[in-house]
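Researcher: We plan to redesign the surface later, but first we want a full-length starting point. Tokens attached.
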């Protein structure tokens, strides 16, 4: 990890980004997932890495993917559209999860569920292609698995978060 980023702040931001990514599963992660999470969470230091002037910066996201691919932390990336996608190498994904302590795994699981809820709500507001719905189902499956493994079934999320997530996922 010492090779990623050019400063300690950038390393911490990319560390968080990669670790959170692992909590969505290893494959076909969408830029739009992170872009939708950015809007209500611009104050988070790690996500500011992908912004310019308080706006999401698609090029910064692509540059980051290019750098992570160069360092062999990503298995693949597709940057041909406005929704760049990437896949973590499965071993990297497992390592990212296992290197964190139990409390951090719970926090990342809760953050992934929160990010997915925001993304699903944003997608729900517009007509989305079947592939996007398939991606959401895949992310939900991984989040539910993480939830069972690290949170004991929404154990540490407040009731309002559980209700909001359930309503959005049901739609």
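Model: Full-length starting sequence:
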């Amino acid at each position: 990890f010492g090779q990623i980023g050019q400063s300690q702040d950038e390393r911490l931001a990319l560390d968080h980004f990669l670790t959170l990514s692992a909590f969505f599963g290893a494959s076909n992660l969408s830029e739009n997932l992170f872009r939708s999470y950015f809007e209500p969470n611009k104050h988070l230091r790690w996500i500011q890495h992908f912004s310019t002037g308080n706006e999401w910066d698609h090029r910064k996201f692509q540059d980051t993917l290019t750098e992570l691919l160069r360092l062999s932390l990503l298995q693949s990336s597709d940057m041909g559209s406005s929704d760049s996608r990437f896949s973590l190498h499965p071993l990297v994904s497992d390592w990212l999860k296992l290197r964190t302590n139990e409390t951090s795994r719970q926090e990342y699981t809760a953050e992934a569920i929160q990010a997915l809820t925001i993304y699903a709500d944003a997608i729900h507001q517009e007509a989305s292609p079947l592939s996007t719905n398939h991606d959401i189902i895949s992310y939900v499956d991984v989040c539910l698995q993480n939830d069972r493994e690290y949170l004991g079934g929404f154990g540490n999320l407040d009731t309002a978060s559980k209700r909001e997530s359930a309503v959005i996922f049901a739609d």
